[in-house]
Amino acid sequence: MAEEKVEVMPEATGRKKLALPHIYALLFGIIILCTLMTWILPAGEFDRVANETGQKIVVAGTFHLVEGHPVGIFEMFKCIYEGLCNAANVTMFVFVAYAFIGLIIATGAFNGLVAGLLRVFKGKAKAAIIPIFITLIGLASSTIGVFEETFPFIPIFVGIAIAMGYDAIVGMAIVSLAAAIGYAGAFMNPFTVGMAQSIAGVPIMSGTAYRLFCHFCMIVVASVYTVRYALRVEKDPTQSYVYGDPSEFSMSQEEVANHPFGIREKLVLLVLLAGILTLIYGTKKYGWYFTELSALFMIMGLLSSFIMGWTPNEIARKLSRNFTDIAEACLMIGIARGVLIVMQHGHIMDTFVYGLSLPLASMPRIISAECMLLVQTLLNFLIPSGSGQAVVSMPIMAPLADLLHIPRQLAVLCFQYGDGLSNILWPTALAPVCAGIAGVKIAKWWKWFVPLFLMLLATQMVTIAIALMINWQ
């Protein structure tokens, strides 16, 4: 994974161009800001009760002030370490998923598959690969909740996109954008929609048809935007936002097109397919999560390695490289979790949630519904966890929706919209992780993605208005 380099480049006028700080510095600055806020904002809490699964959820209407606990300098650094430990289950899963799925990618089987598609879609039609894979990855994310699991595919799609005459942003977008839209438009994701519906008292997996419509709308908008940019870059490479930036994943079209695709590579794809089907079954039937999925990825990676005839030492060296490549991204996840820990130690997290929910009660119905989306999007900056955000916000938003005569189903939709798409926007979520893996500077990703984010946000607001008009339940 390419390390972000932050340089100050002189302009022709002799003035210096400001550059975005390294993501570690940016996250540390946010932690400092949140630490200062613990000295300014009043401390407060909601009462919490355990639900049927044993998870503690907020009790609406119970917010009360508590004794303040401003976070000091030494405690702030303790919170950073605690954040690293708190995110250990996520970071360890990312380590394992990236390393062992990386073994499958290293076999070249996926390159062979894409080479076959390139032979089918020639010339300008090759851009059809972009919406095809955005749709496929988006469906996987929407149904079984894959997000971190897609990280190993980012480098391969970056390489393929460059080989097709596009750039690293296109490759990163195919994977990361699809996963984010999958979460935002999820129709049966157990970690977000399932949990939010259970907390809101809405029938589990209900409202699927309209969620499919919302998902499709976002896929269309994202695909058109990405394809237009890709074709512009193909026509004039200087139009690329990363023009001149080297990529360690660069491949030529000949390398992709001529990649070996024999019986071994095809058997590896069968292992991948069997693994995906097992993942779907295990997740749906037995509620598999990080532990079981990590074991499954290990088995898939090792089986693929044995099929390719690699020796144990070769496998070990490849795993070592993969672990090294993903280390910086995993640290980003842990440091970002420090933001949440600081706010929890200072008892201001619930104060933020309560403060954001108050204005909604006095707004007209349609405006309140749209503002629910904005509130959930802002909350994802502070709580970049779908299930974590659900247990904090849904117990408040669901009864608030009743007061405003808004269907609870719509409150769940606002939650998943806010949780999903902003995962690849906020620096405290997965945006810097995905950009780091792709070797794309986060500032350049934002330059490309923010206009699309606003388009998708507008799309979400339209679907919210339609849901209100048809009284979607």
Output mean pLDDT: 86
What is the gyration radius calculated from CA atoms?
Answer: 23 Å
**Biggest beta sheet summary:** 2 strands, antiparallel
Strand content range = under 5%
Please explain how this structure is put together.
This protein is mostly helical and 473 residues long. It is built from 19 helices and four strands. The strands form two sheets. It has a two-stranded antiparallel ribbon with strand order 1-4. A two-stranded antiparallel ribbon has the order 2-3. Helix 3 packs parallel to helix 12, helix 14 packs parallel to helix 16 and helix 15 packs parallel to helix 17. The longest helix has 34 residues. It is globular and about 65 Å long. The N terminus is likely disordered.
Task: Record the SSE blueprint.
Blueprint: H1 23-37, E1 44-45, E2 48-50, E3 56-58, E4 64-65, H2 73-86, H3 88-106, H4 109-120, H5 129-144, H6 153-163, H7 168-184, H8 190-200, H9 208-235, H10 253-257, H11 263-286, H12 290-307, H13 312-345, H14 349-357, H15 365-382, H16 386-403, H17 408-420, H18 431-438, H19 442-469
Antiparallel strand pairs: 1-4, 2-3
Helix pairs in contact: 1-13, 2-13, 3-12, 3-13, 5-7, 5-9, 6-7, 7-9, 7-17, 8-16, 8-17, 9-19, 11-12, 13-18, 14-15, 14-16, 15-16, 15-17, 15-19, 16-17, 17-19
Tags for this model:
two-stranded antiparallel sheet; 4 strands; 19 helices; 473 residues; single chain; mainly alpha; 2% strand
